[in-house]
Amino acid sequence: MRVYSTVPGVSQRSLTQREKDALEPMIRVDQAGEVGAYYIYKGQLAVLGHDKKLGPILHEMWEQEKQHLERFNHLIGEHRVRPSLLRPVWEVAGFALGAATALMGKEAAMACTEAVETVIGNHYDDQLRELWGFKDHNQQLVDLSKTVAQFRDEELEHHDIAVQHDARQAPFHSVLKAGIMQGCKTAIWVAERV
Ligand SMILES: [Fe+2]
Ligand SMILES: [Fe+2]
């Protein structure tokens, strides 16, 4: 895999219109996704926050989602991107998904995390490839690419933590996982646009 920090020199140019047009839906959907993730963990914590084993793990992942969201809040401002108009939907749907799966049990909560982080990890990976497609990166493209690469790695860590904590022992695991993954993909499609 290409290591981003080895790219020599940073162009002083500003973003082209084509780049701005490409970055706008990326930053919009990423902020919306981090809103969703923040609320999924919040919903899980509402149910499982006092669980001796899972509580601290969920708290730690929630803290990371907070940092992800703060970073994209900043990028929304910096790039003057219109945020998703559906933010209240992402908040409610995220919380409901997190709480509902947690109520089904610890394994189902972890299966939810496994599914969500699979989709988000792949989504960030696709974005990173798109960003690498731009030539002659300026500082903004360097910064965004670093952010996306870092967050992809952290989402995939969340995925691995969920699998280590028995995600695949959840009842109806494959159906649950497939359903949540499809929901996340649909949400991504919508949040890029609305
Ligand atoms: Fe995240
Ligand atoms: Fe995550």
From TrEMBL:
<feature type="binding site">
    <location>
        <position position="65"/>
    </location>
    <ligand>
        <name>Fe cation 2</name>
    </ligand>
</feature>
<protein>
    <recommendedName>
        <fullName>5-demethoxyubiquinone hydroxylase, mitochondrial</fullName>
        <ecNumber>1.14.99.60</ecNumber>
    </recommendedName>
</protein>
<dbReference type="InterPro" id="IPR011566">
    <property type="entry name" value="Ubq_synth_Coq7"/>
</dbReference>
<dbReference type="GO" id="GO:0006744">
    <property type="term" value="P:ubiquinone biosynthetic process"/>
</dbReference>
<feature type="binding site">
    <location>
        <position position="155"/>
    </location>
    <ligand>
        <name>Fe cation 1</name>
    </ligand>
</feature>
<keyword id="KW-0503">Monooxygenase</keyword>
<feature type="binding site">
    <location>
        <position position="65"/>
    </location>
    <ligand>
        <name>Fe cation 1</name>
    </ligand>
</feature>
<keyword id="KW-0496">Mitochondrion</keyword>
<dbReference type="InterPro" id="IPR009078">
    <property type="entry name" value="Ferritin-like_SF"/>
</dbReference>
<feature type="binding site">
    <location>
        <position position="34"/>
    </location>
    <ligand>
        <name>Fe cation 1</name>
    </ligand>
</feature>
<comment type="similarity">
    <text>Belongs to the COQ7 family.</text>
</comment>
<feature type="binding site">
    <location>
        <position position="155"/>
    </location>
    <ligand>
        <name>Fe cation 2</name>
    </ligand>
</feature>
<keyword id="KW-0479">Metal-binding</keyword>
<dbReference type="GO" id="GO:0008682">
    <property type="term" value="F:3-demethoxyubiquinol 3-hydroxylase activity"/>
</dbReference>
<keyword id="KW-0999">Mitochondrion inner membrane</keyword>
<dbReference type="GO" id="GO:0031314">
    <property type="term" value="C:extrinsic component of mitochondrial inner membrane"/>
</dbReference>
<keyword id="KW-0472">Membrane</keyword>
<comment type="subunit">
    <text>Component of a multi-subunit COQ enzyme complex, composed of at least COQ3, COQ4, COQ5, COQ6, COQ7 and COQ9.</text>
</comment>
<dbReference type="GO" id="GO:0016709">
    <property type="term" value="F:oxidoreductase activity, acting on paired donors, with incorporation or reduction of molecular oxygen, NAD(P)H as one donor, and incorporation of one atom of oxygen"/>
</dbReference>
<keyword id="KW-0560">Oxidoreductase</keyword>
<dbReference type="Pfam" id="PF03232">
    <property type="entry name" value="COQ7"/>
</dbReference>
<comment type="function">
    <text>Catalyzes the hydroxylation of 2-polyprenyl-3-methyl-6-methoxy-1,4-benzoquinol (DMQH2) during ubiquinone biosynthesis. Has also a structural role in the COQ enzyme complex, stabilizing other COQ polypeptides.</text>
</comment>
<dbReference type="GO" id="GO:0046872">
    <property type="term" value="F:metal ion binding"/>
</dbReference>
<feature type="binding site">
    <location>
        <position position="68"/>
    </location>
    <ligand>
        <name>Fe cation 1</name>
    </ligand>
</feature>
<feature type="binding site">
    <location>
        <position position="158"/>
    </location>
    <ligand>
        <name>Fe cation 2</name>
    </ligand>
</feature>
<feature type="binding site">
    <location>
        <position position="117"/>
    </location>
    <ligand>
        <name>Fe cation 2</name>
    </ligand>
</feature>
<keyword id="KW-0408">Iron</keyword>
<comment type="pathway">
    <text>Cofactor biosynthesis; ubiquinone biosynthesis.</text>
</comment>
<keyword id="KW-0831">Ubiquinone biosynthesis</keyword>
